[in-house]
């Protein structure tokens, strides 16, 4: 699959109603721009196989906590999935095919594997965007537990999340619903692509950073920060028409932005 086809398939996938988006397919279309010869069906079949093997191990009585423990044992003990603590910012941690092959990932991609396997065994789970981390939880009424996929499926209760937030903010935090928001599938993909964007920016791989930003804007066309960033990256890559358009849009929508004076000077340079 070539670059253009991968982008088209990604766009088609995200045009659906959010609940109908296939996260695994969308993530593999993201990876295909990096790996043009990637066979998406191979990795979808790998997830199917995991789910089939897990189904054979499930207890007869499918109490949610027992199912979670069974998934944890299968993914982390038997298959050896783990958080990549040694090279967290390796781009491969953000590509689903690499995560499945290497058994290494970051919170959001390990969550993706977990969510997709759980979905295939009809155990509903959703992403949770805790500040500074990414969790998942069973989508079951009155079941207030969270799963840390980066730490071998550690089960967290609300008080555990509160403690973690206090550590993140370095001051006591009283847990509020907004600390643990449910993440839509579109938000999930934006978060995945934002990870890639920042990784590539730090590596000064501007073409790849721009590709990530372009796909974020397919999911969230109104993201003004990403519109600005597309403009800045386009400027650095010599694509001055796109840069001018995006930076003018940014100033029009956020005339009082903290970086407005910098952007105005850049636009003067572009037009001069």
Automatic annotation (TrEMBL):
Residues 42-193 form the Protein SirB1 N-terminal domain. It comes from the Bacteria. This is Protein SirB1 N-terminal domain-containing protein. Belongs to the UPF0162 family. It comes from Dulcicalothrix desertica PCC 7102.
């Amino acid at each position: 699959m070539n670059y253009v086809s991968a982008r088209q398939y990604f766009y088609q996938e995200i045009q659906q109603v959010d609940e109908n988006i296939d996260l695994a397919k969308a993530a593999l279309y993201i990876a295909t721009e990096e790996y043009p010869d990637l066979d998406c069906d191979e990795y979808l079949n790998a997830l199917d196989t995991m789910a089939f093997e897990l189904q054979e191990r499930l207890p007869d009585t499918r109490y949610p906590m027992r199912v979670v423990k069974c998934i944890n044992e299968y993914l982390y003990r038997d298959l050896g999935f783990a958080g990549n603590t040694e090279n967290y910012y390796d781009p491969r941690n953000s590509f689903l095919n690499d995560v499945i092959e290497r058994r290494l990932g970051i919170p959001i991609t390990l969550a993706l594997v977990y969510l997709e396997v759980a979905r295939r065994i009809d155990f509903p789970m959703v992403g949770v965007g805790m500040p500074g981390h990414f969790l998942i939880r069973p989508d079951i009424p009155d079941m207030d537990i969270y799963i840390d996929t980066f730490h071998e499926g550690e089960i967290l209760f609300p008080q555990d999340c509160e403690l973690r937030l206090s550590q993140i903010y370095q001051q006591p935090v009283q847990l509020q619903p907004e600390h643990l928001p449910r993440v839509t599938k579109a938000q999930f993909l934006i978060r995945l692509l934002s990870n890639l964007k920042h990784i590539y920016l730090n590596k000064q791989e501007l073409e790849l950073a721009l590709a990530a930003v372009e796909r974020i804007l397919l999911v969230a066309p109104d993201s003004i920060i990403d519109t600005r960033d597309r403009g800045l990256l386009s400027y650095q890559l010599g694509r001055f028409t796109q840069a001018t358009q995006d930076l003018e849009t940014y100033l029009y929508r956020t005339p009082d932005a903290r970086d407005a004076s910098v952007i105005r000077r850049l636009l003067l340079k572009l037009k001069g």
